[in-house]
# Entry
Amino acid sequence: MPYAICYLNGEFQPLAEARISPLDRGFLFADSVYEVLPVFDGRMFRFREHFDRLARSLREIRIESPHTHEEWLALLEELIRRNGGGTMYVYVQVTRGMEFGRNHTFPAGAKPSVFALASQLPTLTPELRATGLTAITVEDFRWGRCDIKSTALLANVLAKQQAADAGAHEAIFIRGDDVLEGSSTSIFVIRNGVVATPANSNRILPGTTRDVGLELATGVMPVEVRSIRLAELQAADEVWISAATRDVVPITRIDSKPVGTGKPGPYWQKLEAAFADLRKRLEGTPAL
Ligand SMILES: Cc1ncc(COP(=O)(O)O)c(C=O)c1O
# Structure
């Protein structure tokens, strides 16, 4: 089995044999946060940004970080090595730990649980590269702290399933008239050669790939970080979504209507090339 080794509470072990208590608060309350980051040719991409965000998520839910950045780096490099190296993604989860009982308030002295796994990085198939992806819009019914990368993802799961049931790849959350983000992606809307993305707030996750997209787009076109109205999404020339496991990818149909020409657009192609360039430049450099 590929990616057979995981890390759980101090031990590298076969993923198929990893066990955790049902009393763990990650299981009982989704009292837990996580990170996902891509690994290209054995090198973790945007390591510091991901672990700064994990540290922030932990701080916001008042769990003391179990590791320093250097310790996380060593732990994950070992996980990558034990899974054969190369290109993959790694997932890290920290829960508040367990107590004997079930109480909403924090247990005194609980030790955070740490879990990490490696898995295959999805690739954009040649067919999807040619056609782009599809999305539906859904009313945002999540909680008020979407800036915390919490494993409490039921609303995201339901929205993504709604998209899948409609034959689409992603669900885009709309709150009132504001376009926010996808169920597991950030969003960019391109109109008249200008790219816009919502500002970070407690209504969206501060996407690490969104930041890369913004940096790279800055060299290509005007960039605006601001609220986006639903009507702008509907009138866009191009729409992109981004996530650590898929870079920036084009959405070419939303709610069954074509976006712009209905094909991946020229700005996305430029951005994608800039992304590939960046990855190449980073080859062989330290991850932290
Ligand atoms: C709700 C949500 N927004 C945005 C993102 C994109 O964040 P990143 O680019 O850091 O993967 C994710 C990724 O999982 C997400 O779950």
